[in-house]
Amino acid sequence: MTAVADSVDDTLADDASRAWLDDLRDALRSGDAGRYEDLFDTDAWWRDLLAFTWDLRSLHGEDAIGPLMTTARGLSADGFTPADDMPPMLIDTPGAPRMVQAFFDFRTAAGPGRGLVRLTPAAGGNGWRAVTLLTSLESLADRDFAVGTRRPSGTPDPGAPSWSARRQAEQECSTGELDVLVVGAGHSGLGLAAYLGALGVSTLVIDKNERVGDNWRRRYESLVLHDPVWYDHMPLMKFPPGWPVFTPKDKMGDWLEIYSRAMELNVWTSSSIDTSSYDRSSARWLVRVDRDGESRELRPRHVVLATGLSGTEPLVPTFDGQDEFAGALMHSSEYTDGTSLSGKRVAVIGTGNSGHDVAQDLHRHGANVTLVQRGPTFVVGAETVEAVMMSGSYSEHAPDTETSDLIGASMPHRATATTAGLQQATAAMAELDKEIHEGLTRRGFQLSSGVDGTGSMMLFLTRNGGYYIDVGASQLIIDGEIGVVSGAGIDRLDRDGLRLNDGRRLDVDAVILATGFRGIVDTARRIFGDAVADAVGPVWDLDEEGELRGVWRSSGHDGFWFSGGNLGFARLYNKYLALRLAAELTGVDTSAPI
Q1: Of 313, 310, 302, 312, which Cα lies nearest the Cα of 561?
Q2: What is the Cα–Cα distance from 484 to 489, expressed in whole angstroms?
Q3: C-alpha distances out from residue 252 to 248, 355, 530, Å
Q4: Which of 179, 230, 261, 515 has a CA that sits 20 to 30 A from residue 109's CA?
Q5: How many CA atoms lie within 13 A of 46 on its CB side?
Q6: Is the separation of the CB atoms in 191 and 232 below 8 Å?
Q7: pLDDT per residue over 489-522, tens digit each?
Q8: How far is CA 299 from CA 180, 204, 559, in A?
Q9: Which residues of the chain fall short of a pLDDT of 70?
Q10: Which residues in 92-103 are b (16+ Cβ under 10 Å) and which e?
């Protein structure tokens, strides 16, 4: 394409986006839902992240979008101009209509926001219509993140305590009065605390482990993160430029400890909750914490459970005859390394990420390992995911992390285009992994292509499992170094091993159950009791709009929230939870307008 053609396309994209944004602004100011057809495609989606709904919403079609256009009249919507740092662009895809993609900035009464719209030509060539619209609240009208040009000076005021004295007082939380108590000092809890701290919200994180990062250090020795470094950055503080692509678990643990100190997070380790209760009249919790043997009383306005969405309560099936079994029977959460099982025969039940990782580690320590596969599993190479799914958004040459996060968030999970894109990507990855897949099939391993051929993403969003991102175990299976038994469940255990319900048996010295966890609601029940657990709604899986249920959103219990997800999801959505909490703490009405 020539420079002249590029200039013409740039002008077209800029003119189209400016005209459309002007029309959207006018329609929202007047609350004129009758202009839907002038602005949106009949199959359009509007995904809003707090800016207009104080929630995470995906609205589809006129019946859902029209009411939001009406209520927007009272939200002081203004701005709606193309973003200076991301000029609109014209996208030509063979076999598809031309598309204009434009980032834009806007304001509402809640605060400044950033949006992303995709426009296609209207029927008959009469203007442009949105097929997807994203609106994201980026800060609050009266409170912004203290980063960049808004960072603190660091120079103490005359007579003020020194930095170290101030930090010691903040860390001790001696009055017990605080805005937010976060339970769990993993990546999600720490990332949320970092956002809250940058908003000036008093926050304390507690964790049962002796050191920040021990939740990673205490896992099996061979573990590495399955997503590449560019996707896994923590909020407001990225990994160093020489960081490995796939982070070893101990290195990740150390980084979380460094992060907590650099971000000046208030963290109590060796701490757990003894009792808790919520007083609706004062809208405060009373929480008694055992801090390394010392009883402390805290009165936070909000409590966030961030101990992992999978939960901390192992899902441990029981089997007939297990008391007769002469060997070791353990859940994968108890497994650290295979040293004690060297030379032993071991069955690993489950073929998700944990099952494969444990089997690979056992093989490395000289065990004779067999994976017992209870159902088909989606398998994709980690480098294949990086090449197909990540290279355009999270790589050395991709846009900055925050921009890529918004691009990903702009595609509603239930949109037809999202499903088609995932199906195309899954097919492309299957082609790259063809040799691995054929080798696994020859060994009797049962493969899945995910929900309707969408690969790991919809499995992650609906089940939070059912897939393996391959970091080496697949080749060991293909080479016969790790055995596989598929197509049958476990009938019973006996003294020497296990018997499958199709009559086959495995004589083993140990059984490791990579069977997952019961979910974070069960963790809430153990820590906060039945009253809280019974009040909250389901957590995880997609609701009818395609939004994840119960996490980073209202849980169903006043002042109680869930946070979690992988590093990328936690980085993006914890920002909105932090903004929502900060808004509520300043008295903003965050009730949903529709």
Answers
A1: 302
A2: 13
A3: 6, 21, 34
A4: 179
A5: 25
A6: no
A7: 899 999 999 999 999 999 999 999 999 999 999 9
A8: 9, 11, 12
A9: 1-5
A10: eeeeeebbbbbb
